[in-house]
Amino acid sequence: MINVLRVCEIFHSIQGETSLSGLPFIFIRLAGCNLGCSYCDSKFAREEGTELSINEIIEKIQIYKTEQVLITGGEPLIQKETPALVNALIEAGYRVSIETNGETPIQEVSKIARIVMDIKTPSSGVDAFKYKKNLKHLKTSDEVKFIIGTDGDYKFAKQIVQSGELPVKEILFSPLSASSAISPSSLAKKILDDHLQVRLQLQLHKMIWGSNTRGV
Fold it and tell me: pTM (2 decimals)?
């Protein structure tokens, strides 16, 4: 079948991350992932999913009077029909963002969608370096995110930021949790002490609805 994707869930909520945090968004969570990060908060998306055509997806989201759409996962770019979905959403008048781990090529969608690339830090437990090939396809209006849980994660992210290889204006440092080795307050202090021009990102949706709530 063509133009069919495996969809884990579709929901309407407040964007809890990135520079657009706080805005109403439609979330299309696609199923499947090519990584197995230790700190993944959507492990259910690796297996759960229903096949939907692009037309069915657009029909489902039309009830939400929101123009911003985030395609997430799992890893949304491992499905070959994702670029077609992006094009169809744009033609329907939506502003499309894609959250990706950067380990899958982004060039088919990078020119037409806002990319949020989550570069995996050491505590993710995965060997992820293919993102480097995608850096040349990022726009200045895209965003890069690092999840920081340990001193090693911070040093890793800091080195990349200070290397100047990131072409984006928005760089996000997100603490793994309040109880991890680096708390939000200690991460904030490190950012200030090191004069890093990055944004401290707290997950607004988890503050509102809790860390174990799906579909928000």
Answer: 0.92
